[in-house]
C-alpha cells in the first residue's frame, strides 16, 4: 500500500483502471512474498534435517534461509516482511523439529537480543526526531489521524475476533469482549510507520514534515496515554 500510494501521488490523474491495478499489485506482492517465504522455509527444513550432526551450522541455516527469502522477495518487488513471516511459520513447525536443543536455544536468545537491539535503535532515531526544527503542526490533521487510527483499530480487532469466534469451531475458548477491547485499545506505538515516513522523498511529498509530526503525535498518544490506561485495565481484569 505504501508503494502504491507513492505511485498514485506521482500521477496527474488516477483512473479506475489504476485503482484496480493497485489492488492487484497489493495481492501479488502479499501472496508472492508469502510463497517465497514458505519455499525458503521448506528448504531450511530440508537442510536442517541433513545437518543433524552439525550443531554450529543449524542456526546459520535458519537465519540464512530467512534472510535469503527476504532478499529474494525484495529483488522481485514482493513483500520481504511477509516473506520472513511465512518462512518463520514453516520453520517453527518443521525446521525447529530437526535441530538440536542447543541450536534451538541459541536461536531463541540471539533473536531476543537482536530484537531488543533493533527496537532500541529505531526508538533512538524516533527520539532524535522529536528535537528537529522542521516540524509542521496542523491540529485538525493530527487529531483526525489519532481518531481514525483508534476507530479503524477497533473495527479491525472486533471484526477479526468475530470471524475467528464464529468460523474456528475447534477453539477451546472464545475471544471475550474485554480481551478484544484490550487488544484494540492497547495499540502499537508506530515504529514501522515512523520508518516509512522518514523514507519519504520531500521533493515528491512536500508534506513530509507534517506527516512526520502527525506520526510522532500518534506515537506519543499510544505510548503514554493508551499504554498507561491499558495497565489499569489489565489490573482491573486480573482482579
Task: Compile the SSE list and pairings.
Blueprint: H1 2-9, H2 16-50, H3 57-75, H4 80-93, H5 101-130, H6 139-167, H7 177-185, H8 191-198, H9 208-238
Fold and architecture overview:
It is globular and about 60 Å long. It is an all-alpha fold. The longest helix is centred in the N-terminal third of the chain and has 35 residues. The model has no long low-confidence stretch (mean pLDDT 84). The chain folds into two domains: 99 residues, no CATH class; 108 residues, no CATH class. It has nine helices and no strands.
In brief:
Keywords: Ion transport, Membrane, Sodium, Sodium transport, Transmembrane, Transmembrane helix, Transport. The protein has 239 residues and is mainly alpha-helical.
What keywords describe this structure?
mainly alpha; single chain; 239 residues; globular; 9 helices
**pLDDT under 50 segments (min length 5)?**
none
Order of helices and strands: HHHHHHHHH
Number of strands: 0
Taken together, the total number of domains comes to 2
Mean pLDDT: 84
Our estimate of the beta-strand percent is: under 5%
Distance between the termini: 42 Å
Q: Please state the structural category.
A: mainly alpha
Largest sheet, described in full? none
Question: How much helix, percentage-wise, in residues?
Answer: over 70%
Cα-atom radius of gyration? 21 Å
